[in-house]
Amino acid sequence: MTTVSGTVRSARGPVLIAGLSVGLLAVVLVAAGTGQVQISPAEVIGSVLHRLGLDVGPLPSVAHGESALWQVRFPRVVLAAIIGAALGCAGAVMQGIFGNPLAEPGVIGVSAGAAVGAALVIVTGLTAWGSWTVAAGAFVAGLITTFAVYLISRANGRTEVVTLVLTGVGVNAIGGALIGLLMFLADDSGVSAIAFWNLGSLAQANWTAVWITLPCLAIGLTFAFANSRKLDLLALGERSAQHLGVNVEKLRIQMIVMTALLGAAAVAFTGIISFVGLVVPHLIRMVAGPAHRVLLPASAIGGALLVIAADLAARTLVDYQEMPLGVLTAAVGGPAFFWLLRRTRTRAGGWG
Amino acid sequence: MSRISRRLRPVFGWGRPRVPVPRPAGSVAIEVRDLRVELGGRRVLDGIDLTVRTGEVHALVGPNGAGKSTLLAAICGDVPPSGGEIELDGAPWSQWSSTELALRRSMLTQRAMISFPFSVNEVAQMGRAPWSGLPESAGDDEIVADALRRTDVAQFAERPFTALSGGEQARVALARVLAQRATVMLLDEPTAALDLHHQELVMQVARERAEAGDAVVVVLHDLALAGAYADTVTLIAKGRVRAAGTPDAVLTSDCLSETYGHDIEVIAHPRNGLPLVVPHRPARTTRLIPTPEESR
Amino acid sequence: MKRLALAATALLLVAGGVTGCTDLGPGPASASGGASCGPVTATVASMDPEPLSPAPQPVLPVTVTGADGATVTVTDASRILPVNLYGSIAEIVFSLGLGDKVVGRDTATTFAAAEHLPVVTPGSHDLSTESVLALNPSVILADASIGPAEVLNQLRRSGIPVVMIDDEQTLDAVPVNIRAVAAALGVADAGEQLIARVQSEIDAAGKDAPADSPRIAFLYLRGTAGVYLIGGDGIGSDAMIEAIGGIDTGSELGLDGFRPMTSEGLITAAPDVLLVMTKGLESVGGIDGLLKMPGVAQTPAGQNRRIVDMADGLLLNFGTRTGKAVQALADAVHRCQGAA
């Protein structure tokens, strides 16, 4: 195992975060500058500066360029960033709470519940909130399912990690069956709608979605970061963490609520996007170590970067077609996960 | 208002945690009275009385299944008593918040585990967690470095915990517990995975902490170690206190033989007078491998 | 994990369906009689909509109220984007003689005159805002059948007038829709002209309907998965079938929309004629492939090989070519009436 001196190890964190931030900005610029309406990155910057009141830089020259940028591209890129950050952070927190690098928001049933909620709304044709009804249904159902999983796995005032995971597995299976049933009951367009929602897509991104998910992200991220130290302590095991002053049960509840919030907000508007919460924290840990003070912000930024890049690929890989985002993240995330698995098992004899 | 906040403090952790006041050596840190613990319907501990004083190394010894680890867990606050009472720093458990408890007692469990590859230094740093936000946390780095040095793991400081051997991991865990600088240090069989040199090292560390004014409670299997390093020994058998007092008083041939169900002799070391605990073993009168003459 | 379970379940169901149904009945047509009249392709002389001549000149600006209740003012009809799920709006625009002003098309608009236009619905049915903006249209005509709603909102917010047409797909709605499209483009008179022409075509087709009503089932075929959907009430195929004097089997069974059909269900329904889309027929391997599908060969239609296929863009659209489409269908079906 490599021996890295103390100063280098502690410098990795800030360097990584700085690097990721630069990468994020670059990807945002590229993503905002790519699409069927021709807008160069310089025009992107110029447009932003003009909006901020500084008359610097070129404005989009092509017809409807400004609209395309502010109506279509920016909401999409910003929403992608928010969702990526939410998933990355939630994944890191889940792994800390469960002491297991395989945990991600889907494990506690958020995705399954949200998918069933969305399918229900699609099949019953509810339109109480217009086009937001599906998102609302997904959000509420995701939260309810998480709490159901949590309550079911409680015994004697405690939740055992293994019970929680197994309950989540069961809930995911039931969710899959329910969705199958709903698809059976739906008509052709309903089936496509459900199937596409399950595959995940950012095509419906708009500013309202951004304003709704942004506070969720802010709250979740802040709260998680404030508890970074305690999350670190959980790595010592429940008992030892308790001995060091951590109220393990309380922390667990709080973090599950927070993850449910982040996870439900993320999938409500885009459908199921997986592996981000699994792969990103893992990669960060490999580079900068498991300390949550670095892991949480880095996972958020890394997740944002990943989803924006994936969405960009989804939009541009095939001419005139848009691949479903969730499929792309799974197609890349799956093999990446196997590679990570092999690589970390051979190192240091543990999950690193 | 202050009475209400005092009651609510353990629930919400409001206000600054109350830092333990340094006490003179010999004062009571933990008082156990008539403790009864039942686990899974079975009575594991029955009517235990125990006093842990500062400035002392208190050894808990006894046969397997006697309840030593359970007693330590009860003292630590992990296992709720079914009867009797335990007082820590003069007040029952419910009076203290999690952080306040962490300032008063630290525990080294039998097995050291970690879910993620924190470095040795980071693991030791975790011991300082209860002190965060308090003025004492200014000395964190020094205390941690000192702990790592004392447990002979300073050379591994930047290695991942998971890359160490079992014995090295045990010492790192001890460093963490040392760094916590709680008034009472509870060690559950800290010598189990260690070689001879490091066993002695750990017990010396325990002695040093006691001399510095803390209380140390150690569960030990090795009776000689207990005899050499402990100020007080409590012998537990079948959930009851069999004997308690100084090593000389407790570690007697009769007492030990009866408790362990084996012929045990306690001899004073010829040079330093420390007890040598020797179980009776049959002398080898017959050679196991026949000599060439015998097999002809 | 859930995805895996769903995939596994789907796999099992399909496997079960295929293996379970292969022993039903004999192979293709061993029926007696009707051998002289087999599968027919219903065609029209030209898939291109017949434009009005001379082409009308839009009189602008014009303010109309769309089917969504919104009042929209159209000032420029030089760059038109007509899009909906069925291609009927594009058809109307071309029939009005304004085809040269159209800048883009939906996936259902496949006739030759529009082939060169860029498609603005990547992923088959959903509009892409950027694709539309890149074309810089001056007016968009759409209906509720195409979405997503958010994209239409984004286009409105970009300053492009979006006129919503009613999306009812019935023979009676054709004149209403033509009128709405013509009004939005400022060519109301031409609209009336077109309505008159189309109506006469439809009337002519309906006149030749024979007395005995053949039972026609519209099957939506998709590849060789062994799953097919039957069209029921409200799809449009039911209206076409009824217009030529036939009985739509799907509606008769009380189904609405597209519904998956079991092979036994199809045998019980016993349609005389199977109506399919040309591309769908190709995807299952032609007539022989269709007859191999469980349940098909056991129907009177299968036994007599009375299979009528029609181009997608012709069969289910309710635009200006409806009259010709009805005529073609009537022709194809009635040709063999009396031979079985």
CATH architecture of chain A: Orthogonal Bundle
Structural class of chain C: alpha/beta
Radius of gyration of chain C: 22 Å
Outline type of chain C: globular
Record the strand order, biggest sheet of chain A.
1-2
> What percentage of the residues of chain A does DSSP assign to strands (E)?
under 5%
Helix coverage percent of chain A: over 70%
| Average pLDDT rating of chain C | 80
Helix count of chain A equals 14
What about the largest sheet of chain A? 2 strands, antiparallel
The CATH class assignment of chain A is Mainly Alpha
Radius of gyration of chain A using CA atoms only = 21 Å
Question: Can you walk me through this structure?
Answer:
The complex is a heterotrimer of chains A (352), B (296) and C (340). A two-stranded antiparallel sheet of chain A has the order 1-2. Chain A has a single domain (2-348), classed as ABC transporter involved in vitamin B12 uptake, BtuC, CATH 1.10.3470. Chain A contains 14 helices and two strands, in the order H-H-H-H-H-E-E-H-H-H-H-H-H-H-H-H. Chain A has 352 residues and is an all-alpha fold. The N and C termini of chain A lie close together (11 Å). Helix content of chain A is 74%, strand content 1%. In chain B, helix 4 runs parallel beside helix 6 and helix 5 (140-150) runs antiparallel to helix 6 (166-180). Chain B is of the alpha/beta class and 296 residues long. The mean pLDDT of chain B is 89. Chain B has one domain (21-264): Rossmann fold. Chain B has a six-stranded mixed sheet, sandwiched between helices. Chain C has 340 residues and is of the alpha/beta class. Chain C is 39% helix and 14% strand. In chain C, strands 1, 7, 8, 9, 10, 11 and 12 form a seven-stranded mixed sheet that branches. Chain C has a three-stranded parallel sheet with strand order 4-5-6, sandwiched between helices. In chain C, strands 2-3 form a two-stranded antiparallel sheet. In chain C, strand 2 (62-65) and strand 3 (71-74) form a beta hairpin. Chain C is globular and about 60 Å long. At the A-B interface, helix 9 and helix 10 of A face helix 3, strand 6 and helix 4 of B.
